[in-house]
Write a structure and sequence with these properties.
It contains 10 helices and 9 strands. It is of the alpha+beta class.
């Protein structure tokens, strides 16, 4: 059996968590990632019949019965993943209608999955319905998006349009826009349910005064999605106090739709 640390999904997870920490998005133990894996790729590296232990998830997700996830651990620092992946990451299989996570690898210090695991799984359920290729849920605390939620209207259309106007590529990268939740208590099923509801219409969900959730087909796409929105927020925060002399107009964004064969969210452009 192959060494799991050489698995492409493991290598990319380690690279991504390291990069996210370097970007300043995941201070201390902030942030979490979950990635859906196929049984066939897991079987190349693990005996799937060997269960190390079982953990109650505290929620139900029948749609994810038998599905495998590589997920970051609770209380773990992204900066340490590269040095001790078996401590800071875990590979689990959901059973009993999603109410149990069977640990097949990792969390070797007795730890468990992120406290945001319910929010991740609820978002996975929704995104798989929207697009079966969406296999990654990523949560982090990008500085400028977080700052923007303190000084800007949380209206989703307004928030999205401003980000689109900051950088030409934005409407191309996230034409479905950005959804926004007001401050809610984190680590609860309630915020998980609210986030999943927002994931029905956008791959990006901002948690006001907290951070952002992103969904995508792989780690690269999801990272890039958040990175693009964060860059736009950074530009906004640099110029918000200045008179805006120029901007990207709706007419120009319609040109971008045609050029890159994307469709902006209905009602978001004039």
């Amino acid at each position: 059996m192959k060494d799991i640390l050489s698995a492409p999904f493991m290598v990319e997870m380690i690279r991504t968590t390291t990069n996210m920490y370097a970007h300043g998005w995941d201070e201390r133990n902030g942030g979490n990632i979950s990635m859906l894996l196929d049984e066939a790729e897991v079987k190349e590296y693990l005996d799937i019949d060997t269960v190390l232990r079982s953990i109650s998830t505290g929620f139900s997700a029948p749609e994810l019965e038998g599905r495998y996830f590589l997920v970051t651990g609770t209380g773990k620092y992204f900066k340490n993943v590269q040095y001790a992946p078996d401590v800071n990451l875990g590979l689990v299989r959901l059973s009993h209608g999603g109410r149990t996570a069977k640990v097949l690898w990792g969390f070797s210090d007795g730890g468990r999955f992120t406290s945001e695991f319910p929010a991740h799984m609820m978002s996975h359920v929704v995104r798989l319905r929207v697009d079966p290729a969406n296999r990654v849920i990523m949560h982090c605390h990008p500085t400028n998006l977080l700052a923007m939620t303190y000084v800007y209207d949380l209206n989703e259309r307004a928030f999205t349009r401003t980000l689109w106007q900051m950088c030409t590529e934005c409407i191309v990268v996230f034409p479905d826009g950005v959804n926004v939740l007001p401050w809610m208590l984190c680590g609860t099923n309630e915020i998980g349910e609210a986030t999943a509801e927002k994931m029905k219409t956008s791959r990006l969900v901002v948690w006001a005064q907290h951070g952002i959730y992103g969904a995508g087909k792989d780690l690269d796409e999801t990272f890039g999605l958040i990175e693009t929105a964060e860059k736009a927020a950074e530009i906004y925060m640099k110029i918000a106090h200045l008179p805006r002399v120029n901007t990207i107009t709706d007419e120009q964004m319609h040109l971008l739709e045609k050029r890159f064969d994307v469709k902006a969210r209905d009602g978001y452009l004039d």
